[in-house]
Amino acid sequence: MIAPVLSLREISKSFGLQRALIGVNLDLAPGRIHALVGENGSGKSTLIKVLSGYHRPTPGGSMEVEGKTVPLGSPTESRRHGLRFVHQNLGLVEEFSVLENFGLTDGFPTRRGVIDWGGLRLSATTLLKKLDIKLNLNRHVSELTAVERSSIAIARALGASGDGTARVLVLDEPTAALPVDDVERLHGLVRGVAGQGVAVLYVSHRLDEVLELSDHVTALRDGRVVASVTATGLDREKLVRLIVGSDVKNEPHAPPQPVAAHRERTRIQASRVSAGTISGISLEVGPGEIVGIAGLDGSGRESIARTLCGASGQVGELRIDGERVFMKSPRDAARAGVALVLANRDLGAAVGQFSVGENISHVLYASTHSLSAHHRGEYERARDWIDRLSIRPRREGVAYAALSGGNKQKVIFAKWLAIKPKVLVLDDPTSGVDVGARGLMYAQTRAAAADGISVIIASSDTEDLVRMCSRVLVLVDGQVACELNGSDVTEEKLAYAMSSGRTNSGMEQDHV
Ligand SMILES: Nc1ncnc2c1ncn2[C@@H]1O[C@H](COP(=O)(O)OP(=O)(O)OP(=O)(O)O)[C@@H](O)[C@H]1O
Ligand SMILES: [Mg+2]
Prior knowledge:
By secondary structure, the protein is an alpha/beta fold. It has two domains: 6-244, Rossmann fold (3-Layer(aba) Sandwich); 260-352 and 422-500, P-loop containing nucleotide triphosphate hydrolases (Rossmann fold), CATH 3.40.50.300. The chain has 17 helices and 22 strands. The strands form five sheets. A six-stranded mixed β-sheet has the order 6-9-10-3-11-12, with helices on both faces. A six-stranded mixed β-sheet has the order 18-19-20-15-21-22, sandwiched between helices. Strand 9, helix 6 (180-195) and strand 10 (199-203) form a beta-alpha-beta unit. 46% of the residues are buried. Magnesium ion is lined by residues 44-45, 404-405.
């Protein structure tokens, strides 16, 4: 047994009456990758914020790094003892260059009162080289791909300008929205960091990733450690049991069929839509149909949902039930009966100070124009959604801002589903959502389709597409390269189509 580099003992933390952590113990070994798993709201981010010194836990707990006691509740002390963090939003400034972003955390070195750009460039270059990251320091962060951004955030976190050596690297859901290939690259980077003797603590809802990457797994449930086991011999089923405490039934792949009576009709028809990387995409979706959009990063998949809802300068023609609609914003879209659910739950998707119930019923009010008449009814509906998606805490009065990341995502999803739109457009809907709640979201989406709603799902997570879609359009270089239907919608066929722009059957024909 290797001596731990970091030991946490008896860490507890409450927010008012909400007990987020209860007597948590955790040991991290140098050079090992340790996964921290648990349902949405189980306490993972809170534990990480205790490690970083952002949250001061209830008195009585302790933290040691290499046998030395680290005062709790002090970001400076955490950093001085070698704890480094990459939070989910990465904390990079889009408008700045990679080099400037390095300066932002480590502080800009100065020589005779002037910023020493040469010194900063040298330390950043050394760091990137050590991690084998090839990237031009002058590029703006806004031009980088998702995996390049994550790499920069990791390199920057490890950066040590006279601030001691990094001993522990903590990553909170770094791969929530990365496509498969990029996940591999990020894994390589994380393994490299561990290979240099750094202990890595890794939060992820992606079970395959946890199984592939980690040496050790600790599971939290309702703020307590319920298991801390080595990853050897762990399989998906056992891992799910650690997380949810019981088996989650993976419903068989049963893609919904278009509602028979409406099969001939088209609900939404987009013709020659172009914007940014997307050029001249056309698609038609019938009532009750669930159509997926797949594609690697940069294929246009990331922006198609927003484009269809008019948020990024729609060029082309859009018809709903045959009628031409003009949408310049998601608000226009909502008016036309098109609801957009984005993965980025902090960007204006909800009102932080408002309660969960108010956020869910907010759109209901806007759509029914009856602020007071149905007040009670709306609240009951909000409570119903809290049950359907297992939103936690299970109280509609809790402020949205106080929710964990995955629970925020569920609220956004609920608020748009609750208005029963004509068309539901989802962009990476399960990003950061735990394994149990994912199944609930899939079931609710299918139920919406069975009700006649047309659903379009763009997702970097192929499981979303395989579990929900009867038809998937595959984007390559901003255009629809091919289409998969029915039983052809599988993980393997999607992966092949996304990288080659062709279906497997196309490949077989090539060899004839
Ligand atoms: N600032 C806060 N104020 C009030 N309650 C909070 C606050 N931060 C977290 N909580 C509550 O503490 C509990 C744990 O939340 P935490 O964010 O740690 O969960 P998590 O495991 O990271 O979940 P997720 O997988 O969704 O990110 C939740 O019930 C959450 O609502
Ligand atoms: Mg979290």
